[in-house]
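Build the 3D complex.
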Amino acid sequence: MSQSSVEIWTIIVLLGIGTFLIRFSFLGMIGERPLPDWLLRHLRYTPVAVLPALVAPMVVWPQATGGEPDPARMLAALATLGVGHVTKNVLAAIGAGAVTLYGMLFVLG
Amino acid sequence: MSASIVRSAYWTGVRHGAPFVLVIMPFGLLFGVVGTEAGLNIAEVLGFSILVIAGAAQFTAVQLMVDQAPTVLVLVTALAVNLRMAMYSAALTPHLGAAPLWQRALAAYFLVDQTFALAQARFESRPEMSLRERLAYYAGSITPVCPMWYVATLVGALAGQAIPPEFALDFAVPITFLAMVAPALRTLAHVAAAATSVGVALTLAFLPYQAGVLIAGLVAMMVGAQVELRMGNRE
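Done.
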């Protein structure tokens, strides 16, 4: 990393302010006014719409393998999804993913 | 409103937030390690976690800084990753909008994926909760999650280079996000939204600055809403 200390802190502080303003946007401005139904209907799907998009490229083209698809990581992702869906338990899902990942990395070398 | 009801809402939030400690810990450790290895000092790594307090955006920013991207590009890309939080903010507004400004500002600072997912689920399933109960529950869910983010980041930065790559900590991020999504796939509309999200994100992965993630998120939300309209919101 070749940035100077000033550049690094500029990024940290501006990213902090910008992120806060995004989080504060509706909570800060709108207050008690109710949001329309169509907007709420879309917002209901925010987590399942955004998080898979963030994750999918990391699963299919992991940086740790230089972007090469990796069966261990692929299976770990499937195990996480499967166990999470069946048990509805976040921790069980993470456990299943971690065990599968380490198991497959051990088996496949 | 008795104080004991509010207190009990707070402790329910703490209990619901507690399991995420095991999620936040590796995630924060990982950021500390990655940031240190990228060349940040401990104050800078901690600065990220305290001022930004958004894992995915922090990883994005550090990655781009290592790639020598110009400052403006680093900021725009990392903020784009955080745009989903505008939707979280809007989704919580019907539930917390009546609170005083300083409380809304505080709630906004702590609005992370985990606390949002918990609060949204709780407030929707219990519309009878009072504003004070909601704020107490929200504060409770933050209590184990956010301080652990700072502590884990610090430990990761200190441990730094000591963790060998064989531990495959890179995959803590995807596993965490997947584990949060899987239990949320309650209806056909949720499944359709998630599937759309994956398909569009992979198709548009060639786009620069994480633009594919943004587009995928918006398209997937529209698909979810449309499927819900046609099917009814069957649980």
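The mean pLDDT of chain B is 87.
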